[in-house]
Automatic annotation (TrEMBL):
<feature type="signal peptide">
    <location>
        <begin position="1"/>
        <end position="19"/>
    </location>
</feature>
<dbReference type="GO" id="GO:0008270">
    <property type="term" value="F:zinc ion binding"/>
</dbReference>
<dbReference type="GO" id="GO:0008745">
    <property type="term" value="F:N-acetylmuramoyl-L-alanine amidase activity"/>
</dbReference>
<dbReference type="InterPro" id="IPR002502">
    <property type="entry name" value="Amidase_domain"/>
</dbReference>
<dbReference type="InterPro" id="IPR006619">
    <property type="entry name" value="PGRP_domain_met/bac"/>
</dbReference>
<keyword id="KW-0964">Secreted</keyword>
<feature type="domain" description="Peptidoglycan recognition protein family">
    <location>
        <begin position="38"/>
        <end position="181"/>
    </location>
</feature>
<dbReference type="Pfam" id="PF01510">
    <property type="entry name" value="Amidase_2"/>
</dbReference>
<keyword id="KW-0391">Immunity</keyword>
<dbReference type="GO" id="GO:0005576">
    <property type="term" value="C:extracellular region"/>
</dbReference>
<keyword id="KW-0732">Signal</keyword>
<protein>
    <recommendedName>
        <fullName>Peptidoglycan-recognition protein</fullName>
    </recommendedName>
</protein>
<dbReference type="GO" id="GO:0009253">
    <property type="term" value="P:peptidoglycan catabolic process"/>
</dbReference>
<dbReference type="InterPro" id="IPR015510">
    <property type="entry name" value="PGRP"/>
</dbReference>
<dbReference type="GO" id="GO:0042834">
    <property type="term" value="F:peptidoglycan binding"/>
</dbReference>
<keyword id="KW-1015">Disulfide bond</keyword>
<dbReference type="InterPro" id="IPR017331">
    <property type="entry name" value="Peptidoglycan_recognition"/>
</dbReference>
């Protein structure tokens, strides 16, 4: 094969891969974007049940929606965190009839980030935003108390990581769950007052479900 034909073939393969990636809604992170991988616990590592269905959307997402679990409360060990994730998934799948755990990712008290549905996967945490946001849960009841500082620091680090890896827009907007869903106090009064101080939090919401 001539050099010219090799170049044409290579360009065709690259364009095909790019098109396929866009069609399935998956964003490929830069190869250098690896620094948080050791802190992200995969679905298989926490024993997640398989989803009943799975749909993707094109990223990067323009929103981050912050949640608290209310129940279960803060878990501090890896084993307790895995148990909490399964408890939440069972609630969502078996009792509410959802296809999977509702959130995109969760922060637990053991200092790790737990994969929920994952990046660019349509979630079930906030109507009108499920196909254009990262639903970030902090496990615990933060009505009258703040999450441990380590959890809040990890949440901020993870949001920054999501931007740097191209899963979240640089000009993203951050909301508390109560801002985009009527009838909920999530992410708790104490925590909601705190996230108002976080970068990119915005008070005005145009479309509340």
């Amino acid at each position: 094969m001539s050099t010219r034909n090799k170049v044409i073939t290579t360009l065709w393969l690259l364009s095909t891969i790019s098109a396929l990636t866009r069609n399935i809604g998956i964003h490929a992170a830069p190869t250098e974007c690896k620094y948080m991988e050791s802190s992200i616990i995969s679905r298989s590592a926490w024993g997640a049940h398989p989803p009943k269905d799975r749909f993707t959307f094109d990223g990067p997402a323009p929103f981050v929606i912050i949640h608290h679990s209310y129940k279960p409360d803060v878990a501090l060990s890896p084993s307790c965190c895995r148990k909490s994730m399964l408890e939440i998934q069972n609630l969502h799948q078996k009792e509410r009839g959802w296809s999977d755990i509702g959130y995109t990712f969760a922060i637990c008290g053991d200092g790790n980030v737990y994969e929920g549905r994952g990046f660019n996967v349509v979630a079930a945490h906030a109507p009108l935003y499920n196909n254009r946001s990262i639903g970030l849960l902090l496990i615990g009841d933060f009505t009258d108390k703040l999450p441990p500082q380590s959890m809040m620091d990890m949440a901020k680090d993870f949001i920054r990581y999501s931007v740097e890896c191209g899963y979240l827009r640089k000009d993203y907007i951050l909301y508390g769950h109560r801002q985009v869903r009527n009838g909920t106090d999530c992410p708790g009064d104490a925590f909601y007052a705190e996230i108002k101080k976080w970068p990119h939090w915005q008070e005005d919401v145009k479309d509340i479900a």
